[in-house]
Amino acid sequence: MEAGMFKPLRNKAYRSLFGAQVFSDLGNWLDFIAIQVIVAYHWGLGEAAIASVIIVMGIPWVIIGPLASVFVDKLPKKTFMISCLSLRILFVAGLFFAPNLYVLLLFVFLKATVSALYDPARQSAIRHTVPEEELPEAVTLSQLSVNTMKIVGPALGGGMIALYGVKSPFVFEAAGFLIAILLLLTLPKIETEDNLLEPQKTSYFKELSEGINHIFSSRILKAAIILSSIAFFIIFLYDGLFIFVAQDLGFDQSEFGLLVSSVGFGSVVGALFLGRWTDWKHKPIHLMASASVISGLLILGIGTGVMGLFELPKMLWMAGAFLLGILASAEGVPYGYVLQSETPRKMMGRVSAAAMSLQTFSMLVAPAAGALLAKWIGVSGVLMGAGIATFFMGTITLIIRLKQTSGKAELNNFGS
C-alpha cells in the first residue's frame, strides 16, 4: 500500500487539520497533572475536590456538546475551530490565575465546553476533506494523535512542573493552541452542503432529533456506539482502581508509571498496525467484538493475579498491559471509522456529539460504581467482573454479527 497510513497527509486540508489536532490534543493533556497537583498539593484539598474537577470536566461533553451540535453542523468549520482554540487560550489563562477551587472549576468547565464543541467540528471537517477510500487511514491517524498525546501530555506536564514550576504547563498549553490556530489558518475553505444549497428553515429540535434518529436507523453505527459506550463503562469501572491493582501486583510508586505507559504504548502500536493493515474496514464490528473477547480474558487473568491465585514477573504484567493497549486500539480505531463512514457529511457534528455524550456519561458514572463495587467485592472482584462482562459483550456481539453476515450470504445465494 503506497504511503500506507500516511496517505491522507498528502491532502493539504487534512494535513492542516491533523497538525492542529496534534497540538490541540497535546494541550488537552498538558494540564491534566498540573490541575491535580494544584488542587491536592498546593491547596491541600482531598478526593472530593479531585472528583469535582473530573465531573465538571465531563459534564459539557454529556450535555452541552450534543445540544450545540446542530449549530456546529451549520457554522463554517474553519472559523468555528479557530474561535474555539482562541477561547481555549483565554480559559487556560483563567486556570493559570485561578486563586481557589471555585474559580478553577469555572475555567475547567468553560475549557471543557469549548473542547466539546471543537471535536464535532473537527470530525465534520475530516468527513468533508478526506475522500471515502482514505477514511480508514485518516481515522487511524486521528486516533494515533489522541493515544500518543495521552502518554506524552501528562509526561511532559510532569516534567515541566519539575523544571519550571506547577503552573508552567498552562503556558506551554496556550502556546500549543496558538500553533494549532496558525495551522488552521492554512486550511482551505471547507465546502459543505450548507454552503452549496439554499438555506432551509427547520426547527432546532427537528435537526437535533435527525442526528439521534440516524444513529438508531443505521444498524452498524448503532452497534459500534453501543459497544464502544459499554466498553468505556467497563474500562472506567477499574481504571480508577489501577493504582491499587499495581500495588497488589508488587509494583512500587516509581514502577506504576511504567505499567500505565505500557498500556499507552500498546495503544499507539495498535493504531500504527491498523493504519498499515486496513482490511478490517470491511468488518469493523467483528474486529471490535473480537478485541472485546480477548481483552475480557486478559482482564479476567489480571484479576485472578491480583487475587493472588498466581504470580508472574513484572515484565509479563507489563506485557499484558501492553497487549491491553493494542486491544483498546482494535476497538477505538474501527469505531472511529464506522462513525465517519456511516454518517452523512451534513450530520457529522450532531452524530459525533451524541455518540461522545453517551461515552462520556459512561466514563463519569463508572468510577463511582467501581469504587463502590471495590468496597463490596474488592479490587480483584471488580477486575474479574469487568473481564467476564467484556468477554460476554464481545462474544454476544460477534455471534449476532456472524449470524447477520451468514443470513445476508444465504439471501444473496437465494437471489442468484
UniProtKB/TrEMBL annotation:
Pfam families: MFS_1. The chain crosses the membrane at residues 21-43, 49-73, 85-110, 170-187, 223-244, 256-275, 287-310, 316-339, 351-370, 376-400. GO terms for molecular function: transmembrane transporter activity. It comes from Mesobacillus selenatarsenatis (strain DSM 18680 / JCM 14380 / FERM P-15431 / SF-1). This is Major facilitator superfamily (MFS) transporter. Its main location: membrane. It is a multi-pass membrane protein. PROSITE patterns: MFS. One of its GO terms (cellular component) is plasma membrane. Keywords: Cell membrane, Membrane, Transmembrane, Transmembrane helix, Transport. Residues 217-416 form the Major facilitator superfamily (MFS) profile domain. It is found in: Cell membrane. Coiled coil: none annotated. It comes from the Bacteria. SUPFAM superfamilies: MFS general substrate transporter.
